[in-house]
Request: fold
Amino acid sequence: MCGIIGYVGTQDAKKALVDGLQTLEYRGYDSAGISFFTDNKIKTIKKVGKVSNLRENVKASASDMESHCGIGHTRWATHGGVSDTNSHPHTAGKVTLIHNGIIENYKELQDELAEKGVFPVSQTDSEIAAMVINDLYDGNPEEAIRLGTAKLKGAYGFCIMFEDIPDTIYAIRSGSPLVAAHTEKGSLIASDMVALVSYTKQYFVLKEGHLAKITKDEIIVKDEFGDIYGPTIHHISWDVGAAKKGGYDYFMMKEIHEQPESLRNTIKPRFINGLPDFTDDGVPDSLFEGIDKIVITACGTAMHAGLIGKNMIERLARIPVTVEIASEFRYQNPIINEKTLIITISQSGETADTLAAIALAKEHGCKTLSVVNVKQSSIARESDYVLYTHAGPEVAVASTKAYSVQLSVMYLLAFKLALITGNVSENKIREYTAEFADIANKVEETLSYDNQSENIAKRLAKAEDIFFIGRGLDYMLSCEGSLKLKEISYIHSEAYAAGELKHGTISLITDNVPVIALATQPDVYAKVISNVQEVRSRGAKVILITDSDASVDASLCDHQIVLPETSPIFTPFLSVVILQYLAYYVAVEKGLNVDQPRNLAKSVTVE
Ligand code: F6R
Reply:
């Protein structure tokens, strides 16, 4: 959720921290702050607003201060409103820290401290953690951190500095991610690799409960028993340019355009002789044998990819699949056992609810497979098996390319499962895969629909409500189109199964209400068209998205978008580009910050 970074080295720490926070800003942008050692004292600058605001403040008030060690934070507010005081870093006595996560028992700890006459200045749970550690500090930082964190319940990634131990950062985590690297220019720790990549491509993941002592010359990691631990070094496979805008106005538009390449990278290595193959992923076919049901669990956009996955797996392999919102699944006492395959889908690999769903699945003896974009993330590490999507870093809060590659893995899984169950002949699967291998080119073709989409979006921007309708795959895609639109344009929107409209929602259709109708599936085409007629006769303005075969009476809609030619089962890959464009251009037309919509953050590490 929040972005955190620590730097100690030969460079100007203030600049290193603010630059690092800029790359992490997508994790939270309510406020930003840094603390750094200067003249053997800790100086803190923290401000409500974006990192650019912090940068101005640092320039104005600290440009002459020399510093080579510090910590920085960009906040997504949980406990305590958005204010300078509630911004991180927080200081208590000799301790200054930054925190990503939530301390659930902070109230109880606050009451304990109050009995000792110690009171916080902010309303945050994080300051209480600083106070707890300070209370236990008598010159031994590692002991104070160990004893202090033992009292905390909840999730945390901390970077901590002690006033009397200059140029040293300590870090510890439970639940929230931390990655670290030692380079020639110094040592770094951060909540995400994007903050490290301009220094190095080699990094390690700080394990749960491990404690790191970070200095200019080295990073010493100790396990929970206090023994020195040699972490495994991983390699970042993408380039520093992947985390930059590269000439686009917004990351979202860049990432929409990266979909063909992401799809190629995700699909191509998994075809051997025209058939899906997960050998290089270390996922054996035996994983899929003997399962009697599949539960797909995820959140938001990733859950929408799961809906289409369900449709494809049930259609091709005839294995029953349910899709569960991860935050609900956990509390439903689900009927799952060792014959259930749990598939989790996540871009960040850190979503707290999805992570908790895996823990629950394991308690029930289920096999777990995750579809994850970020390498070595918590979800990837906790799952029995992983199929990585290869989208590279996704920076815009609204997910685009990650969704497309999640879909592609769900299709590969459906093909594989259909072969294993024998429900579809190998020849037929080869026919599908031959066309699927070309899907990235079709998506590329669809990217040229930008002007058309922009013109339509300009007319949608003044709407107060926008409805999406479709049936089957198109309904599932409508859910994603509606989420995308509302999250970045702030226009109220709902997705409806087209046939369900008249069971309530059609009362909301009045003159000029935009309805985006997807009609790309021949088996239900006529039915969707009837539903379109129903909303048109109540005054709706209809934007109709069809496949290339559909013949539409021009009077039926206000705008028609005809997708490039493809088989109906593959239209979601193309339709989603149009829906992403519409959401994007509506938000731009409204003058909104497309990449950083209000109240949101990219990686949701709190429940
Ligand atoms: C919406 C969006 C979110 C995420 C959701 C899950 O555009 O990006 O709905 O899909 O928060 O995140 P991950 O995929 O990181 O688990």
About this structure: The mean pLDDT is 95. The chain has 18 helices and 26 strands.
